[in-house]
User: What shape does this take?
Amino acid sequence: MGFVRNPSMRSRDFLEGMLSDYVNGGKAKVKAPKNGSTRLMTALTFLQFAFAVYATFLLYYMSPAVDLRTKPDFTWATRIARNVKQLMIIPPHVVGRYQDAASFIRAEIPPITPSDVCENEKIDFMQKKSNDAQMIKLKRELYDEIRDFQSKTIGTETLAELMAMKSKWDMRGTNRPKVTVLLNHFKRKTLCSQLDSLLQQTLPFHHVWVLSFGSPNERSLKRIVESYNDSRISFISSNYDFKYYGRFQMALQTEADLIYILDDDMIPGKKMLQILSHVAGTEKYKNSVLGSIGRILPFRQKDFTFPSYRKFRSKEAGLYLPDPAYDITVDRIVQVDFLSSSWFLSAELVKALFIETPFTFMTGEDLHLSYQLQKYRNAGSFVLPVDPTDKETWGDSEHRLAYVSETTVIFKDIVQVRDDQWWRALTTGYVTQWAAMRPQKIDALFYAHSVDEVKALAPLLEKFRSTVGKKAYIVVSGGNFCTCENAAAALKWPKLVCRERRFKIFDLQIGALSGTSSSEIPILQAVYSSMKGLIKIHNPSVVITVTDIDPNVKKALKMAAETNANGTALVLLPRPSVSKVLWMADLRSTALPNWNRMRVSVNIITQNRAPSLTRLLKSLSDAYYIGDEIPISFNVDSKVDEATIKLVDAFEWPHGPTTLRRRIIQGGLIRAVSESWYPASDDDYGLLLEDDIEVSPYYYLWIKYALLAYHYDPQISFPELSSISLYTPRLVEVVKERPKWNPTEFFKRIHPNTPYLHQLPCSWGAVFLPKHWREFYVYMNMRFTEDAKANPVQIPKSRTNGWQASWKKFLIDMMYLRGYVSLYPNFPNQASFSTNHMEPGAHISAKDNVVRHDKADFEVPLLKQDFRPLLPNGKLPPPSKLPSLNLFNQPVSLKGLKAAGAKLGQDVLRCDNATEIVTVDHVSGLPRQCSKFL
Assistant: This one.
């Protein structure tokens, strides 16, 4: 092939001549240059036709209809193929000529560059600025409040301080983070500006994914991406519009360390990737989502409702940060309720967005992300500060773009949807900045997983809500279990409460948001996460539910209550007991968290009165225990009979463990009683019962109520209280004449049914406090004598001085010397929580007991009805209102009782007879010193 191109010959003429040379066997000469493109087209058409003929003959001979036994002659086709091969595979010395032709073709279609396809968003207006002095003042005040609060609680840093913090990422070394940037585009013309900024970042990105979901500009967006010719930049499109959540779904696919998701109105400064990555690598902010624009959700108004986040001229409507309209810039990092327009977070945190089904896929992904991150990952949302003098540190260098086509401003329906969304988040446990800055304090938070549980809890809920000064709300599971509307109907409340923006019923939307599952984990997780937030916001003293609630829900409630550092007790009530504990609403909120602290044990002293023991055990079994664990012990002497042992062995006690203690050597009544119980802790209380005692069904409620009101309220100091009696005496026991006595008549001027304090301990059903019982043990050990007359304590005019075999005598002495008292009930006809049947035993009818006992003087009726309505004003009076009596049933103040003990001067330590009494170490019970009581 000696065909050489004339330098003046055009490429298309050269190519036509070359083709003619092959077709005519190399004999054709190059014609003079022809004008027009038809020659090139003719040559190409001929070449196409030649290949078509070759392919047709080839297919024909390969067809099954052709007789393959006849060997076809393909020499003509082989000749054509060789010529074509020579045309396509040009020898080295012809390459220059072919390249000239290719260069000409490329010159006709030049490569695309960004300058050819890029468009820029026109911003033909100035940044909005408000001249409303009142609004500027309100917004500025709220911002300053938020900054001051966060500065004191979590600490806030400037940009320089953030960059000085230690980070896991080394921006200049080998441990640089891989950052994938996701750009979501629809109509705006900002893609080139974003890509140009990202390509100039001080920390190079790992990948950029440009997303186009249902965009009418898909073709132009794709051309822009192609024009940059950068393998790190990819274009991902779909005809279906995945809306605002699609980009987060795509983010789940990245293998990068960190993700930066940008709205199309965000043009980040050149230092943003470096700043964001550094902060995300710090220990303090590693579990956070970072951004450049955020919102503070509304605060509660004076009428206890919450306004729309778009309410005008309202400080409570919240903040938009930064807000150039009100001259609010972010110079220190600030925690917000949710971020807008950009999100920087670890790839792992993105998963939290999809734990719950969003309220809607149409909008609100920004709030849903922050809400889910806090709820399930305990992660915060933060707006980073900027250097106002360095625009390259800004995450939003053209803030005016945010005001172009802002749907949350233009469309009223969108505003309503977003209002509903943040309110639902707040009522399902989202701890907003309002909640953090304005911690609430309520008395009770009820939880019901079903409509039946709402009905069971209704009496106590209504009692709380109707009690002056008390606050109580109810949480329902929602979804397919119990909706707000179901609960409102069960409570006979108007359904409007489910649409108001005020706290009454919280609907957790369980199932509706998370879907149905045969596993218990979604329910446990949803209840725990929501209740944890609600408890943190409202600080209830107690969370109340029914004992037979779903075990997984119970577990979730227990875990949630334990997260509250301020102390929240989980109260599990048997359904029949709910209406019996309405007095809970009368306790101070400071006492309620101690609901589960006390441990009252029943300690029975018995030996050979099986019928009496049977009656006692039945009365104990019929009582209300409101879900508490009540251990029971049987203390028998060595001479116990077989019937009693068999009775104890067959007894079933569903409220706690059962213990049997049997002596080897007969100890007698004084040892049997005093050694039947010893406190294991300061929250361990002992109820001592001889077997001829019988109790009221309400006896435990009286003990619980009294302990919470007088012993577990940190606002009350009542060190004189040593025991709580179940019994109301009818005689003045310690004087020789033993006159009858009726407290109802005695206290009628105060209130006929007021409880009262008495210096006499009760041996016919009483609960003893642990500190005083330890003290009593030591005292009795120091003062016990076989001969009662040898006892150094002789109380003037008291017949107790001669009691021989009585443990009670030593307790009376100690209480008299140190000014201690017991709490006694006082109801009509001296009805009590226990009664003594005065049956023959070690003391009653004993041979050496010269005192004869009339059963009518000791046996009192048992309370068979709720005692709360009988109390003064339907509740226990404060300690300062309780009347007090001395050992002889004479009214004496608590200070007067101490003065009488000091005057006697017969305690184990010698003290000033006018101003001092013995005080002890309450752990050991040992006397420590003399202390002044005046």
About this structure: The CA atoms of residues 184 and 211 lie 5 Å apart.
